[in-house]
Design brief:
Blueprint lengths: L2 H20 L3 H6 L5 H28 L4 H18 L7 E2 L5 H32 L3 H4 L4 H18 L1 H5 L11 H10 L6 H20 L5 H16 L6 H5 L21 H26 L5 H17 L6 E2 L1 H9 L6 H17 L8 H16 L1 H10 L1 H16 L2 H23 L1 E4 L12 E10 L4 H11 L5 E12 L1 H16 L3 E5 L3 H9 L6
Helix pairs in contact: 3-4, 3-11, 3-15, 3-16, 3-17, 4-14, 4-16, 5-13, 5-14, 7-17, 7-18, 7-19, 7-20, 10-11, 10-17, 13-14, 13-15, 18-19, 19-20, 22-23
C-alpha cells in the first residue's frame, strides 16, 4: 500500500536532484576538479588581460548608449561577477555589449535612465524564467544567417552613431536615432568638422589594426586609448574629452536602489527585445568559447545567471548584461581555466575605479569613437557577408532581409522575420526531398485497377503535403482502394495528418476505401489526433 507512494517520492526526489544538477553553476563544477595554484595563476593572468580589454570598451559602449562612462564599468563589474559565479560556461565574460547600443540608446531616448533600469530588471526576470523553463536549447536554433544579418546590421548602426564624435561635429539639435534621419543632420553639420578629433579617431583604428597584426600579445585597445589621451593632455588639443563632457568617475560603486516599477508596462517591448538579443548573444558567445576550449556550456544555467546579472545591474544603475564574444575569446586565448578569471576581471575593474578613476577624464571622445568604429567594422564582417551571398541564394535572402530590417526598421522585427523566412526555406527544402511514388494506371489505359498504392518516404508535413495532394488529384475516382504505404515516413505533422483524414473522407464520398500501411506508433498517434480511425 505504501510502496507506490515511496516510489513516487523517490522519482520526485530524483527529478528534483537532476534538475538542480542541470542548473548547477560551472564554478562549483570547476572547483570540485582539484583546483590548485597553477590553475589560479592562469585564471589571474587571464582575468587581468580581459580587464585591460574591457576597461575602454565598457566606457565606450556606455557613452554610445546614451549613458555615463561609469555605467559601463558598473555593468562589467556587477554583471561579470554574477555570471562568473552562477553561469554555465567556464570561460564566459559578461558585461555591456556593442550589440545592445542601438536598443539601449533608443530606450534611454524614450524613457531616460530610469526606464532603462526598469527594462533591464524586467529583462533579467524574463531570462531567469527562460532558463528555469529549460528553453535555452531552443534559442540556439536561431539560424546562422540570421545571426550574421542582425550582427552586421547593428554594426552598421553603431558605425553611423560614431560619426559625430569621430569627426568632432557639433550639432545644434539632438542627434536622431534612425539612420535615415541621422545622416542628413550629420551632413548639415560638416562645417563644424574638427581635424584633431578626426585624426585621433583614424589613428586609433590604425593603431589597433597594426598592434593586432604585428604585436598581438600587447593590449591593443588600452594602448590605443592611452596614447591619444596623453597626446591631448600634453599638446592641449581642442577636442572633447570624458572630463569636458561628463566630469570624472565616481570613487566606488553607487548604492543599490530599486528601479521605478511604474515604468514596467511602458518599457515591456524594450525588455522583450533585451531578452531576445541577450539570450542569443550570450549563448552564441558561450558556443564560441566551447569551440575554442573544447568544453560544453550549460545553456539553461547560463540564462539564469544572465538574468540574475541583469537584475543586479539594474539595481546599481548599470546597462543590460550579456555574454561578450570578444572578451570571452580573449579570456580563452589568455589561458583561463575556470570562471574565477571572470571574477578577477571584475575585481580589477573595481580596483581601477577606486584607484585611478580620475585619469578617465583625459580620454578623448574621438578615441572611444575610434575604438567603437573598429568594433563595428568587425561586427559588420563584410567578407563574411559577401561569402554568404555568394554561397547560397536562399541563405543570402535570409541574411540580407535580416540586415535590411535591422538597419531600417527594428532589430526584433529583423530577427523574427529572418527566423520565419529561414523556416519557410527549410520547409521547402524538406518538402522537395520527400519522395511520393504511386502505382497509377496510364492515362490512356482502358482497364482501371482495383487498387492504387502510394509509397511515401521522408518527412510528411505541411511543406511536402502538396505533393501527395497532386498524386490524389491525378488518381481521382478510378480505383476502388487507395493504399498508403507510410513505412518510410520519418515524421508527420498536423497538416499532413489532416490531409490524410480529408483524403479518407473524400474517398468515402466516391465509394473508395483508403488503407494505411506501415505507420509507426508516432505516425498513428498524429493521425488519430486529427480524427483518423483504423476501423
Amino acid at each position: 500500500m505504501f510502496l507506490p507512494q515511496l516510489r513516487d517520492k523517490n522519482v520526485s526526489t530524483a527529478f528534483a536532484t537532476n534538475r538542480f544538477n542541470a542548473l548547477r553553476p560551472d564554478l562549483f563544477r570547476a572547483l570540485g576538479e582539484s583546483y590548485g595554484v597553477p590553475a589560479f595563476r592562469a585564471d589571474f593572468l587571464a582575468g587581468v588581460t580581459v580587464a585591460i580589454v574591457a576597461l575602454p570598451l565598457s566606457m565606450a559602449i556606455a557613452i554610445a548608449s546614451g549613458g555615463r562612462p561609469e555605467a559601463g564599468l558598473v555593468t562589467a563589474i556587477i554583471g561579470g561577477i554574477v555570471v562568473s559565479v552562477l553561469g554555465g560556461s567556464r570561460h564566459q565574460i559578461a558585461g555591456p555589449a556593442g550589440a545592445f547600443i542601438v536598443l539601449v540608446a533608443s530606450t534611454v531616448a524614450q524613457f531616460g535612465m530610469a526606464g532603462l533600469a526598469a527594462a533591464t530588471l524586467l529583462s533579467g526576470l524574463m531570462l531567469v524564467a527562460v532558463g528555469l523553463l529549460r528553453a535555452g536549447r531552443f534559442i540556439r536554433y536561431v539560424p546562422y544567417p540570421v545571426t550574421i544579418g542582425f550582427t552586421a546590421g547593428i554594426g552598421c548602426i553603431i558605425l553611423a552613431s560614431q560619426l559625430k564624435p569621430f569627426l568632432g561635429l557639433t550639432l545644434t539639435t539632438p542627434e536622431p536615432g534612425p539612420l535615415l534621419d541621422k545622416l542628413p543632420v550629420l551632413w548639415s553639420a560638416l562645417d563644424t568638422f574638427n581635424l584633431g578629433a578626426a585624426g585621433i579617431g583614424v589613428g586609433v583604428v590604425a593603431l589597433i589594426w597594426v598592434l593586432n597584426h604585428y604585436a598581438p600579445r600587447l593590449p591593443a585597445l588600452l594602448i590605443a586609448i592611452v596614447i591619444p589621451s596623453i597626446a591631448v593632455a600634453v599638446l592641449k588639443l581642442p577636442v572633447a574629452t570624458i572630463g569636458s563632457e561628463f566630469g570624472g568617475l565616481p570613487r566606488g560603486l553607487p548604492m543599490p536602489q530599486l528601479p521605478d516599477l511604474g515604468l514596467v508596462w511602458a518599457v515591456l517591448p524594450n525588455a522583450i527585445a533585451f531578452t531576445l538579443l541577450g539570450a542569443i548573444e550570450s549563448l552564441l558567445s558561450a558556443t564560441v568559447a566551447d569551440g575554442m576550449s573544447g568544453r560544453r556550456h550549460h545553456p539553461d544555467t547560463e540564462l539564469v545567471a544572465q538574468g540574475l546579472a541583469n537584475v543586479a545591474s539594474s539595481l546599481f544603475g548599470g546597462l543590460p548584461v550579456t555574454g561578450t564574444i570578444a572578451r570571452t575569446a580573449t579570456n580563452v586565448r589568455a589561458g583561463a581555466k575556470t570562471p574565477i578569471s571572470g571574477i578577477i576581471h571584475s575585481l580589477v575593474l573595481l580596483a581601477f575605479i577606486l584607484l585611478f578613476g580620475q585619469w578617465v577624464a583625459l580620454i578623448p571622445l574621438a578615441a572611444l569613437a575610434g575604438l567603437l568604429t573598429w568594433v563595428s567594422l568587425h561586427m559588420i564582417g563584410l567578407r563574411q557577408v559577401i561569402g554568404f551571398v555568394r554561397q547560397s541564394r536562399a541563405e543570402a535572402l535570409v541574411l540580407l532581409t535580416t540586415l535590411g530590417l535591422t538597419i531600417f526598421r527594428d532589430l526584433t522585427e529583423g530577427i523574427v522575420v529572418g527566423v520565419a523566412l529561414s523556416a519557410l526555406i527549410i520547409a521547402h527544402r524538406l518538402g522537395r526531398d520527400m519522395v511520393v511514388l504511386a502505382d497509377e494506371p496510364a492515362p490512356d489505359a482502358v482497364d482501371t485497377p482495383d487498387q492504387v498504392k502510394i509509397h511515401v518516404s521522408g518527412a510528411f508535413f505541411f511543406g511536402s503535403a502538396p505533393m501527395v495532394e497532386q498524386v490524389l488529384e491525378r488518381i481521382g475516382a478510378r480505383p476502388k482502394v487507395i493504399s498508403f504505404d507510410l513505412s518510410e515516413v520519418t515524421f508527420m505533422d498536423t497538416s499532413a495528418a489532416q490531409l490524410m483524414v480529408q483524403a479518407i473522407a473524400r474517398a468515402g464520398k466516391l465509394s473508395q476505401r483508403v488503407v494505411v500501411e506501415g505507420a509507426n506508433p508516432n505516425i498513428l498517434k498524429a493521425l488519430k489526433a486529427s480524427g483518423y480511425s483504423s476501423g
